């Protein structure tokens, strides 16, 4: 304490000219005159006062062993049979919301099945399904406000679907036609919507986490009643940008919700080869971030967790980390064959016993809200609608070649104009080697 007073005296003293050394020396002499008995009587000397940590002194030489810590529990509301496991949330289970969750999952599953086959038929170039991870889409989407900003990684189309992105818009983006809001510049599944507050997907893994923190910081600076929800995967958590994002969000008190979809695999790398310790959630407390682990196959667990996380962000001005434990039933993408690194039995087990849609269906059946014929018809109607949309939207031309150069600057630069003319000449000469369905040159 006396040392701190001496230092404070030095800082408070106006230092100028040639008497700097004299003043510092005077303060040092003042501290050196403190007796041992005075130091012993200062009760705060037994507490560490290092600027880098808050702890207590100990005489025990002991390293912390991560294997001796209790693991972070997994919060859930519904078990695999669709039965609520906590009376605390029994009265909060909105069955009408559950019904909508179920129907949206059906729609997403049907869209995934049809567009996956469209890629296999050569109609589109690429696709990624969301089988098994639907609860991590719709639960959080329902818990947010419409103007909350969402940064997806690439496997979260359900959030957009919940907010009103139409089947036509999904299909247009995958075909990259003239109605694609991205003007055909992105590969399939890189959706985005300014109107629905959903940032366009980026192929550069984990870059969205830093952008999300920046947007949340802007909300905080402007005093906005908005939060940012940022998705990332267990593999993305190993990227350097993830660690930087966590730390910046914590230090700057950004209202951002980090939601990790821990689906067991980073493409082909299983989690036991990805990290040691108690998963991604264990990183939150170390960086001063309120953290929870949830059952990512329980849509209501995801819903309540994000709902509470939003309150923490707004009321306490802090970031939140949610680790949603789930399983990727489908292949990583149409470029992947997951049977090369996991067994068919493993996939079948998770598909039959852990699928989020099955859990919601069982909940609805328990409450006499599931009509077999009605849902069968709904599934058939949605499938027909999506197939019809695919047939219609694939007929449209691709955007004009000039769109390759627009939207970089307010107006095309001289160099861009020259490049555009060079490309035009090239296409006129070699047109037969290029697709014929561009709108124009």
From TrEMBL:
Its main location: mitochondrion. One of its GO terms (molecular function) is branched-chain 2-oxo acid dehydrogenase activity. Keywords: Metal-binding, Mitochondrion, Oxidoreductase, Potassium, Thiamine pyrophosphate, Transit peptide. It is found in: Mitochondrion matrix. The keyword Iron does not apply. GO terms for biological process: branched-chain amino acid catabolic process. Residues 103-401 form the Dehydrogenase E1 component domain. InterPro entries: Alpha-ketoacid_DH_E1_comp, DH_E1, THDP-binding. The keyword Transcription regulation does not apply. Its EC number is 1.2.4.4. Belongs to the BCKDHA family. This is 2-oxoisovalerate dehydrogenase subunit alpha. It comes from Blomia tropicalis.
């Amino acid at each position: 304490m006396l040392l701190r007073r001496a230092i404070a005296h030095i800082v408070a003293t106006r230092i100028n000219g040639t008497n700097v050394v004299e003043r510092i020396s005077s303060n040092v002499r003042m501290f050196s005159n403190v007796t041992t008995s005075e130091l012993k009587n200062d009760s705060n000397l037994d507490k560490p006062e290092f600027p880098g940590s808050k702890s207590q002194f100990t005489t025990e030489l002991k390293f912390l062993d991560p294997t001796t810590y209790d693991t972070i529990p997994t919060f859930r509301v519904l078990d695999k049979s669709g039965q609520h496991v906590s009376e605390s949330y029994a009265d909060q289970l909105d069955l009408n919301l559950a019904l909508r969750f179920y129907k949206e999952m059906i729609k997403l599953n049907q869209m995934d099945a049809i567009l996956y086959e469209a890629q296999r038929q050569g109609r589109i170039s690429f696709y990624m399904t969301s089988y098994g991870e639907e609860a991590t889409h719709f639960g959080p989407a329902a818990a947010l406000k419409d103007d909350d900003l969402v940064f997806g990684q690439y496997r979260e189309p359900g959030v957009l679907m919940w907010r009103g992105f139409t089947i036509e818009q999904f299909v247009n983006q995958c075909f990259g036609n003239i109605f694609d809001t991205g003007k055909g510049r992105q590969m399939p599944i890189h959706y985005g919507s300014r109107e629905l507050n959903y940032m366009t997907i980026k192929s550069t893994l984990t870059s969205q986490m830093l952008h999300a923190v920046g947007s949340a910081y802007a909300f905080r600076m402007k005093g906005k009643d908005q939060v940012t929800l940022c998705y990332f995967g267990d593999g993305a958590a190993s990227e350097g940008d993830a660690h930087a994002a966590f730390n910046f969000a914590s230090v700057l008190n950004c209202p951002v919700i980090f939601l990790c979809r821990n689906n067991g695999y980073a493409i082909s790398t299983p989690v036991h080869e990805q990290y040691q310790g108690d998963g991604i959630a264990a990183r939150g407390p170390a960086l001063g971030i309120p953290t929870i682990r949830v059952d990512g196959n329980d849509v209501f667990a995801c819903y309540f967790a994000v709902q509470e996380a939003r309150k923490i962000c707004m009321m306490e001005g802090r970031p939140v980390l949610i680790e949603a434990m789930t399983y990727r039933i489908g292949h990583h993408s149409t470029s992947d064959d997951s049977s090369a690194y996991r067994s068919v039995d493993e996939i079948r087990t998770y598909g039959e016993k852990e699928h989020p849609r099955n859990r919601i269906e069982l909940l609805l059946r328990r409450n006499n809200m599931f009509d077999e014929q009605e849902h069968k018809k709904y599934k058939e109607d949605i499938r027909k609608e999506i197939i019809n949309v695919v047939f219609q939207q694939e007929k449209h031309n691709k955007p004009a070649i000039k769109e390759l150069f627009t939207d970089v600057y307010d107006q095309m630069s001289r160099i861009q104009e020259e490049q555009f003319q060079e490309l035009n000449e090239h296409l006129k000469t070699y047109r037969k080697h290029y697709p014929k369905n561009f709108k124009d040159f």
